[in-house]
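Exam revision sheet. Question 4 asks you to relate a sequence to its structure. Input first:
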Amino acid sequence: MTDPRLQKDLTRLLAALEDGPKTGAELSAALHLKATRIRSLLLHLQTQGKVHAPHSVTRERGRPVNLWELRPGVFSETGTP
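Answer key, structure tokens:
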């Protein structure tokens, strides 16, 4: 049995990525979830093959930050995440 909160957060995160690639910090701010929760959700979705981070951006401190995006066909397979 799947935790309803987990399913809700995963669905919200996938919907947020429909608009295009985002960093973990952007997702955290948009969904009002802690960065650690976002990281956990992203890793969960990555193992399921639903998201990936093929690109990164450099932030003000010069550190690279992953840009997460949906894998092609995530929504087209079933119409829902």
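Marking note for examiners. The beta strands are 51-58, 64-70.
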